[in-house]
Amino acid sequence: MTRLTPEVVVLGTGAADGWPSPFCDCLSCADMRQRRRVRTTTSALVDGLILLDAGAAVPSAVARAGRSLREAHHVLVTHAHPDHLDPALLLWLDWNPTPHTLHVWGPPAVASACRDWIGPRTPVHVHEVSPGDEIALSTPSGTYLARVIAARHEGCTPDAVAAEAVLYDIATPTGGRILYATDTGLLDDVAPMRDAAYDVILVEETFGDHVDHGTGHLDLSSLPVMLERLREVGARTESTQVVAVHLGHHNPPEALLRDRLASMGVRLVDDGTVVGAPRRELILGGARSGKSREAERRALSFADVTYVATAAERPGDDEWAARVEAHRARRPSHWRTAEGPESLLPVLRGARPGTAVLVDCLTLWLTGVLDAASPDWEDAAALAVAAQDATKELIDALSACAATVILVSNEVGMGVVPATRAGRLFADLLGRAHQEIATACDTVTLMVAGRAVEIGDGRG
Ligand SMILES: [Zn+2]
Ligand SMILES: [Zn+2]
């Protein structure tokens, strides 16, 4: 069986009070407000079937991500703190009952909190779990197996709910594996995760540089220790995507936090980001439409990025060299760069899961293909065949690529019909290539004046 990476929609990445925190105007909250940024309470949706945690922000987060809970068959709740469980969700289910039963799993306090919210006809079944349990989660796509692992969530005050908090280790029917590890301090015993080789680890990082919080949470000094322990037992591998969640305002402003996390190989993603399964994203736009910046912004959430600069060398062209240098200066120094149109396919073929490949841009890649086929661009038939073959090869490489690929290209078809024969031919061939490549992409975005317009998934 081929192992398929699960799709994990990270619905929320914020701490209990969200980020920014409502009554706070510290630097890191002010930075978020000024940019209208919000991180709501931590939650995720696995393959559309399994909801991880269900705080009050979940219904709106699900809607913002363009999803619904109609197909959700299970809700795994870590503990009954309000940011992880708002039992009113069951009332919304009662108002719009699903044909199947929704199974809610959680420690004892979760079950008692749900009790008053279940009507005689609510299609729900609540199960109590405790650490060490293995539970079978049946779904229309097969049976997922979840293991319940003890969290370490107690703070300085006794708190019965925190004492029973758990983590979930989920194995999917297609061989994928996820660790949901929020609301825990440093675990001394990671033996239950031995050899798990997770595809995705959602790990909490509530406190940033505040290390004397004395609570059952992680911070920027304990997180790397936890990750190292997971690596030692083979739970975190080279291919594991580690995503930081339960982020609070004690963290440095996002731009700084992103770099700090990247140095640990940890992703900082926006609420609503899909992680796990690799994605193909096509970004089209005219000159100076903001397409490269948009692509770079998306790639920034990955700890490991290969940037493919498809421009061929242009010896003696200073203006061109200055443009290339300006792009280069904007990129984080830890990104790897591959240069030239011929580097594209080898990079796609060699890319590892959990990483990102940013291709800027397909216009120059196709130019390189055509230059090689007919250096004077005279043989129109040869050029058309070369473009077609190269496009097919690219689509095959894209479909097989283990990494997320972000493709940038110029939408050249919107200007006037080019005056030269070569110009007209190029616009035709590139337009055709875009149409075909789009069918292999999960999303297609048009950039206009720095704004991104989603034009649907590539399958139309
Ligand atoms: Zn929490
Ligand atoms: Zn908690």
Q: How would a crystallographer describe the biggest sheet?
A: 7 strands, mixed
User: What ligands does this structure carry?
Assistant: zinc ion
Per DSSP E runs of 2 or more residues, the count of β-strands stands at 21
Strand order of the largest sheet: 6-5-4-3-2-1-14
Pairing-aware structural class of the strands and helices?
Answer: alpha/beta
Number of domains: 2
Question: What's the helix count?
Answer: 13
Which segments are poorly predicted (pLDDT under 50) over 5 or more consecutive residues?
none
Question: Which keywords apply here?
Answer:
460 residues; alpha/beta; Metallo-beta-lactamase, Chain A; Rossmann fold; 2 domains; 7-stranded mixed β-sheet; 13 helices; 29% helix; binds zinc ion
Short description:
The protein has 460 residues and is α/β, with parallel strands linked by helices. Helix content is 29%, strand content 23%. Residues 16, 81, 83-84, 183, 246 line the site of one zinc ion.
Spell out the blueprint of helices and strands:
Blueprint: E1 7-12, H1 27-34, E2 43-46, E3 50-52, H2 58-64, E4 74-76, H3 88-95, E5 102-106, H4 108-115, E6 124-128, E7 134-139, E8 142-150, H5 160-163, E9 166-171, E10 177-181, E11 200-204, H6 222-232, E12 241-245, H7 254-262, E13 266-267, E14 273-276, E15 280-285, H8 291-299, E16 305-309, H9 318-330, E17 336-339, H10 344-350, E18 356-360, H11 362-373, H12 380-400, E19 404-410, H13 421-438, E20 443-448, E21 451-454
Parallel strand pairs: 3-4, 4-5, 5-6, 10-11, 11-12, 12-13, 15-19, 15-20, 16-17, 16-18, 18-19
Antiparallel strand pairs: 1-2, 1-14, 2-3, 7-8, 8-9, 9-10, 20-21
Helix pairs in contact: 11-12, 12-13
The chain binds zinc ion (2 copies).
